[in-house]
Give the backbone structure.
Amino acid sequence: MLRMMLRPRWVLALIAALGIAAAFALLAQWQVDRAVEQATVVERPTEDVRPFGDVVQPDGPTEQAATGQRVSVTGTIVPGDTVLVQGRLNDGVAGWWVVAHLEVTDAAPGGLPVALGWAADEETARAALAEVDRAAASGSEVEVVGRFLPSEAPMAPDEADDPQSMTTVAVAHLINVWADYDDRPVYFGYVTATEPMAGLEAIHSPPPLQEAELNWLNVFYAVEWVVFAGFAVFLWYRLVKDAVQREREEAELAAEAEAASATPADAARD
């Protein structure tokens, strides 16, 4: 078959097939470029502060449109329910979050975790926790402006750690820690405060990345052109293979005919 491929006719056919495949490949590249150029960026006004009640409702999943949205929420902090969440990174440095239990009053009633700030050491974090509970004892309303994020998954602490320690802001865990919390509504997310409370540092909470949606029709066309390019080379190979097979069959038939014509002559000599 290799000798057949090296014949001038088939070499020229291969060059033509490769040229066609290259053209199809260029068309595929063009379609991919078009898909990228026409990609639609899904822009959400996450940096505009919106009323909390317009973004999310209690006892329901966090919608994609609400994730990362800056909100303003008012409520009362429940004293005694403030916790520390350890191992939280702030610009790459591990530390503690002070997370309070806010009962929302300016939207549908429900419990909402609010992260009030970050501390690099546990002593500072515990001092801030005590101050939150002391100030909350007055029962006055507070307004928190920050970024709303969906609840995280609970994680079991390491064997060497305090069994009550937390490393995630998991609403499913917090409602079991909050005192006397029954079947009241709860928001399955939390807010990271933009302005930290006194003694703490602001939590680094960047806006969510903007998503880009590709033009999938162009991507589909690009795949088609790649298939066509491969088919052009395959078609050349198939034609060569068929030609080789045809020559073999013709040679076998010629050999059989020659053998058949030689048999009567041999019999006459005998």
Remarks:
- The first helix runs from residue 2 to 5.
